[in-house]
Amino acid sequence: MTKLAPVLSAHWDEKDSFTLEGYKRHGGYTASAKALAMDPDAVIQLVKDSGLRGRGGAGFPTGMKWGFIPQGDNKDHYLVVNADESEPGTCKDTPLLMANPHVLIEGCIIACHAIRAKHAFIYIRGEVTHVVRRVNQAITDAYAAGILGNGVDVVLHIGAGAYICGEETALLDSLEGFRGQPRLRPPFPAIAGLYARPTVVNNVESISSVPAIVNNGADWYQSMGTEKSKGTTLYSLSGHVVNPGQFEAPLGITLREILDLAGGVRPGHKLKFWTPGGSSTPLFTEAHLDTPLDYEGVAAAGSMLGTKALQIFDETTCVVRAVLRWTEFYKHESCGKCTPCREGTWWLVQILRDLEAGKGTEADLAKLLDLCDNIMGRSFCALGDGATSPITSSIKYFRDEYIAHLTQGGCPFDPVASTLFAGAGA
Amino acid sequence: MAYTDEDIQIMESIIKRYPRPRSAIMPLLHYVQSKAGYVTNEGIEVIAKVLQLEAAEVTAVSTFYTQYKPTPVGEYHVGVCTNTLCAVMGGDAIFASLKDHLGIGNDEVTADGKVSLEHIECNAACDYAPVVMANWEFYDNQTVESAKDLVDSMRAGNPKPPTRGPNKLVTWKEASAVLAGLNDGLAHEGVQAGEPTLLGLKLSKEGK
To answer: Could you tell me the strand order of the sheet in which B108-109 lies?
Structure first.
C-alpha cells in the first residue's frame, strides 16, 4: 500500500496557511535564502538531480528546461508561471494557491536565480477571484518584507477566460497583449519566449515543488516515486466517489489505492470509465485500476498522466453524452488559428450530436475516427490532439454503447440517475 | 461615463507593472469592466489612447476572451459549470432550473439587472462538483434548490456568501477591479481550504 506523502499540502490545514507568517512558521523563505547563496548552475544541477518533472501535463524534466536558457547572452530572461488551470478535471493549482501562495513566490525567486532572470510573471486564470486576491496579497506582503524587489520582481497577470492560454506559447502571446493563439515551435520559449527573450514557462506545482527540494536535497526527492517519475504530486479525485478531494502521494500510486482512501465509488455503483489526467488524456476503465500513475505507467497503458485529474464516472453515466460535452468544450475553446482544429472540432460536435440523438449510422463512427486521424498532430498546439482523445478511447472501449444509441433511436440512460442528488443506489 | 484623471492615473499604474505597455491590455480591459460593467466603446477608446494603439487592436483582443462582456451583465453574474463532470453530477439540472426560475436564457440578464446567467466551462473545483460561480467566486457542492436560493438572495439584495471566498459576495464591478490586479483588502477573509482540499492531508495524519 502506497502511503500518502504531503509535502506541498503539509500545512494546508492551518487557518493562516496563506499568510506570510503562516508560511514562515514552517521554514518558509529559508530555501530561497539558501539557493541565493549557491551558484545558479548548482541550483539547476540540484533540480536536475532531484528528477522533478513538469506537473502541468507534459512531464518534461524541470532542471533540463532551466538548463536550456542561454547564459552570457546579455538579454533579459523571464520566468513565466502557468497558473491558467483550465483542463477539465484539473483542480490542484487553484487550491494550492488559495492555501499557500507564498510557496510559489519562493519557488519563483529560486528559479529566477537559477536562470538569471529578474522578472517572473504569474499568469493566473481570470475566473477565480479569491485566488487572485490571495496571490496578489502574498506578492504585496513579500515586497513589504523585502523578500521581493531585491533582484526579483513578480508580476501577477490575470487572464480572461480562454482555455488555450494554458498552452505555453498562447500564454506568451496573451501576456504580450494579443489574442491568445499558439506560436509555431521552434523557436522554443527557451530561445525566443516572452518579448522574444529566453523564457522558462513552468506550471504552478512544478515551481512550488522547488523550495522543498532545495531544503531537503535531491536525494530526499529521489527517494519518493518510481524509477523515472520522482517525488510527490497532487492527485485530484472527483466525480462519483464517496469522498472526492486532493491526495498528495508519491508518483506511481494506483487509482485502486486512491479509491480505497476515498471510500470507493458511491455506494451501490461501480466504476465505468475515468480520466487519468484530464479530458485530453485517453479514457481508462476498470481494467486500469492497478496501472501505476506515473509518467511511464500511464503512457504504457495507452494514455497520459497529464495533470493527474482523476475524474471518476460510474455506470449511470452515458459515455456518449460525456464525450459530446468535452468535444463541445474543445470546439468552443479552439482558438481558430489552425484549420484542422478549428474545422475539425465543429465536425466532431455535429456528428456526435447526431449519434447521441440516435440519428446517425454506424458509418459515422468510422467518420469520427477518420476525422480524429486528420486532426491529430496537424496543428500548432495540442488542443486538437486533446479533442480526439476522449473520442478515440471511448469508441475503443464502448463501441456497443454508441451502437445502442442508434438501435434505440436515442440515449438509453436516465440523466437523473447520474446526478449527486439522485442519492445512493438511484 | 467619463474617465476621470484618477482613472487614468490608475490605468497608468497598471501599465507600469510591465516591461512593455501593450502587456497591460488585459488588466485594463478588466478595469474598464470595473467602471462600466462591460467593455464599452468608450472604454476601448480610453485603452487605445493610453497604450497608443488603434481601437481596432484593443477590440481584437477584447473579443477573443469570454470574460470581457460586450453587453451589460447583472450585478451578480452567475456561472453554472456544465462541462462534463459537473454536468453529469447535476450541473445540467441546475442550469435548466435557473433558466426556468429566472425566466432568462444563457447570456441574459434579469429585467431588474440583478442577475445574469451563463453556462461556464471547468472552473478548477471538480472535487466540489457541482460548482456554481458568482462574480467568479466559488459556490461549491450545489443542488437545484441551493442554486435557486442563491439567486433569490441576490435579487433580494442580500446575496449568500461564497463557500470559499470573502465573507460577503462583492459586485460584478468590484470583482472586475480585483481582476485588474487592484487589491480590495479581502484576501484574509474566508477559509484557507475546503474539506475535499484537505482530505489527503487528514488521512495522512491518520497514518494512511
So the answer is: B108-109, B115-120, B76-81, B132-134, B137-139
Contacts across the A-B interface (CB distance below 8 Å): 265
Rounded Cα distance, B82 and A75, in Å? 45
The reported pLDDT for the residue numbered A423 is 57
Cα separation, B23 vs B61, whole angstroms: 11
Chain B residues with CB inside 8 Å of A238's CB?
85, 126-127, 129
Q: From A213, A257, A255, A214, select the one nearest A232 (Cα to Cα).
A: A213
Q: Are A317 and B88 in contact (CB under 8 A)?
A: yes
Do strands B76-81 and B132-134 pair parallel, antiparallel, or not at all (unpaired)?
antiparallel
What is the average pLDDT across B23-35?
98
Helical (H) or strand (E) element with A53? none
pTM value > 0.95: yes
Per CB-CB distance under 8 Å, the chain A contacts of B128 are 244
User: What is the mean pLDDT of the segment spanning A40-56?
Assistant: 98
CB A348 within 8 A of CB A387: yes
Which domains does chain B carry?
5-62 (1.10.10), 76-171 (3.40.30.10)
Residue range A232-314, CATH number: 3.10.20.600
Contact A59, A49 (CB under 8 A): no
Residue B32, C-alpha cell as written in the block: 474598464
Summarised one tens digit per residue, pLDDT across range A151-181 is: 999 999 999 999 999 999 999 999 999 999 9
> Looking at the predicted complex, does its ipTM rise above 0.85?
yes
Helix, coil or strand: residue A27 = coil
The B residues from 35 to 54 touching A (CB cutoff 8 Å) are: 51
CATH no. for A20-222: 3.40.50.11540
Residue B188 pairs in a beta bridge with none
Q: Which run of H or E residues covers position A235?
A: strand A232-239
Q: Does the pLDDT at position A286 exceed 90?
A: yes
